[in-house]
Amino acid sequence: MRLTGSEILIHALREEGVDVVFGHPGGAVLFIYDAIHRLGLKHILARHEQGAVHMADGYARASGRPGVAVVTSGPALTNAVTGLATAYADSIPMVCISGQVPTHAIGSDAFQEADNVGITRPVTKHNYLVTDVRDLARTLKEAFHIATTGRPGPVLVDIPKDVSNTECEFLYPKEVALEHYQPRYEGHWGQVKKALALILQAERPVVYFGGGAILSGASEELLAFVDTLRVPTTYTLMGIGGIPGNHACSLGMLGMHGTYRANLAVDQADVLIAIGARFDDRVTGKLDEFAQISKKIHIDIDPTSIRKTVHVDVPIVGDVKNCLQKLLKLLDDERPEDLERFQRRIQPWWGRIDDWNREAPIAYEQPADGPLLPQFVIDKLYQMTEGRAVLTTDVGQHQMWAAQYYHCQGPNNWISSGGLGTMGFGLPSAIGAQVARPGETVLCIAGDGSLLMTVQELVTAVEEQLPVKVAIINNRYLGMVRQWQQLLYDDRISGSDLHVGPDWVKLADAMGALGLRATRVEEVEPVIEQALAHPGPVFIDFQVKETENCYPMVPAGNPSSKMLLSDPDPMG
Amino acid sequence: MRHTISVLVRNEFGVLSRVAGMFSGRGYNIDSLNVAPTLDPKVSCMTLVTHGDDDTIEQITKQLHKLIDVITVKDYVQQKDFVGRELAMLKVAPSPDARAEVLRVVEIFRGKIVDVSPKSFVVEVTGALDKIDAMARLLEPLGLVQVVRTGPLAVGRGL
Ligand SMILES: Cc1ncc(C[n+]2csc(CCOP(=O)(O)OP(=O)(O)O)c2C)c(N)n1
Ligand SMILES: [Mg+2]
Q1: pLDDT for A571
Q2: For A117-170, what is each residue's pLDDT tens digit?
Q3: Cβ of A139 less than 6 Å from ligand 1
């Protein structure tokens, strides 16, 4: 079958099971857009390329399938860079198609020419410039393969305009020929055995899992593992939902705004079992004082993650799901009395952890007639959606409160920019998530600063009738920045005041969506109810206490056992 | 510690910038870098020399492996494991009474004069790094004008 490059692209996407793309058109992708139209591929028009890529990202995180974005050359590609870097930092499978000036014009500083592969090289897992249409099908096959296997990540395919309009014979390859790209899925049996032996002799074990557990689809195995051993378990921001947040063995999140018990448990552990996590600095705090006492087991599919910053005693390169299955198989052969002995042995450890929790739980006190506390709002959202919404967030205090108070009940339900910390991620990723999971409640917990960075995408939600609910935690500050300035820079509030801001209700209205507002305690429930019942997209302006701070907090550079638990006493 | 790392790569568009970009992006050093095709025209061989502590070198080799276009990575440290050689060309413009001394140095280092002009020589020499450094040091006071070198190449001993 002879097809043009653009038609090959659409056919290849179909072969890969892609039924929707997120994009924004322009000169270099006109043939591609024409093929999208002629061949009837579902396209969602984002109002900014960053939005398009975040939508593809949210789609991928919510569905577990690769998201696809299409952008044109030059400024469109540079707009897309933040989205790619966000997906790369969180290892999200994605294929981004970019347009390029015609091959004969490459290198001539043509109109809207940019070195797309050069610019995106450090923010993609791999990228391609296709200069011959005969390479296109193979390249797309490779792109999807690379994006979705091993440690996943975004792959960019740059297609010059002439290539998208040149014909050749189309045959979609069945296999990829990448002999030397062979991610290791199988955990080494010997290492797995060593790991289990180490775990079973522990007195103070802690499981610490991250986004790798979600990406590998290992929730079930993880839960079985935790349930079998009744072992204290904490997770990173990227791991949220891997086990239900309020599971009896859950210590909550660890790290900079992690729970007191989780950080202290990791600090005091004698065996730390890291699963699909990478000892990020937001988790470890001061590196040389992190979990010093413990022997460490580290399961990760990416060999570069292992021993990158932290010494590991039992490294296991492999897929989290595969390794957990092996651990479970070995556990099956353990005698029940040995497991009971293990659980009895760690009882005192649980006792200490529970004491820590009593000492400094995650809690708030909402005064009945005082200003709304952000924690209260998020807690209400949690209760009223029973923790079952697909939750996206922006970046800042509200994100950390969401991690602390919205106990996600399942994997792929927590969608947040962890590695890059991209403000403006919440709304577009919610749109992508809603496309992936049409019947479900998709809730975005947004910051008043973050939301304004990508707010134009509300129009996309209106156009596509995607009923995302955006809960704006409106504290009239770049709150996280203000918190640091208050605590670490003597309260000099520099560039973080947002008192000049939009009327969110009117803004929603102007864009064709519903705008709601709550300023008092008794307004919160009715407004959430109304939003959840509304068939279209909603902004809820929760006007919260402006100067509430997020605790616990490990100030940067401190060991994670040294947490601030509340505002410093102004008298002392 | 100095390491000579031999990397076979798919000869794809931009592969050099991927490798170089990985080094600069992660703050690793490249002391020298040499790239040339192999017997298989689809495969090139890069030889890089870098230094760092063991953890850094381990990360470097892992990060190289992680690049999709990289086929194999060999890290050479021990002299007994590999033969390392570098080619250099040195341009010398000695004063008339130093010419004989230059020729003597060239002979000692088993160099070859590959170009002669009324006022200068070009000397070709191969050897381990230190040999070229030593030769350059000796030629320096005799009117050394320019040194160009390939950077080391490495091949494992035996099969
Ligand atoms: C694109 C981008 N720019 C800047 C930052 C730095 N930053 C981190 S949190 C934050 C404040 C976010 O404010 P807001 O969205 O209102 O959330 P809040 O902390 O008030 O809940 C800023 C500016 C960032 N993470 N991303
Ligand atoms: Mg704010």
Answers
A1: 66
A2: 999 999 999 999 999 999 999 999 999 999 999 999 999 999 999 999 999 999
A3: no
Interface contact A121-B18, CB threshold 8 A = yes
**Where are any strands of DSSP class E within A384-537?**
390-393, 414-415, 442-447, 469-474, 514-518
Q: Which residues partner with A234 through β-bridges? A: A208
- Decide whether any atom of ligand 1 lies within 6 Å of the A187 Cβ: no
For strands A295-300 and A42-45, give the pairing. Answer: unpaired
| E strands present in A72-209 | 94-100, 126-129, 154-160, 167-169, 205-209
Give pLDDT, residue A569: 77
Here the tokens at position A275 are 């699963």
B17 alpha carbon – ligand 2 mean position (Å): 40
- Hey, which residues does A443 pair with through a beta bridge? A391, A469
* CA–CA dist A94, A23 (Å, integer): 13
How far apart, in Å, are the Cα atoms of A400 and each of A99, A253, A258, A374, A377?
A: 37, 10, 8, 11, 13
Nearest by Cα to A372 from A543, A226, A490, A567? A543
Domains and CATH numbers, chain A: 2-169 (3.40.50.970), 189-359 (3.40.50.1220), 374-543 (3.40.50.970)
Give the CA dihedral A207, A210, A212, A213, nearest 10 degrees.
50
Residues contacting residue A334 through CB under 8 Å, at least 6 positions apart: A200
Is 0.90 surpassed by the pTM of this model?
Answer: yes
The backbone region for B38, taken as left when phi is positive above 0, alpha when psi lies in -120 to 50, beta otherwise, is beta
A433 closest CA partner among A44, A32, A112: A44
Q: CA of A476: how far to CAs of A422, A479, A542, in Å?
A: 19, 8, 11
What is the H or E stretch that residue A354 is in?
helix A347-359
Angle at A375 between CA A371 and CA A378, to 5 degrees: 110
Q: Is A49 a catalytic residue?
A: yes
- Torsion angle, alpha carbons of A77, B19, A302, A394, to 10: -30
CB B22 within 8 A of CB B67: yes
Q: What is the DSSP letter of A515?
A: E
The answer to whether ipTM exceeds 0.85 is yes
Atom of ligand 1 nearest to the CA of A395: 9
C-alpha A550 to ligand 1 mean position (Å) = 14
SS3 A378: helix
Whether A171 and A12 have beta carbons less than 8 Å apart is answered as no
List of residues 6+ apart from B117 with CB closer than 8 A: none
| Tens digit of each residue's pLDDT (9 = 90 or more) over A524-572 | 999 999 999 999 999 999 999 999 999 999 998 999 999 999 998 766 5
Position A211 pLDDT exceeds 80: yes
* Token pair for A124: 């993609």
Backbone angles phi, psi at A67, to 5 degrees: -90, 155
d(CA A544, CA B38): 66
Asked if A180 and B13 come within 8 Å (Cβ–Cβ), the reply is no
Supply B58's token pair: 């381990």
8 Å CB contact between B47 and B19: no
DSSP per-residue codes, A324-347: HHHHHHHHHHS-HHHHHHHHHHTH
Q: A162, A102 in Cβ contact below 8 A?
A: yes
Q: Whose Cα sits closest to atom 3 in ligand 1?
A: A423
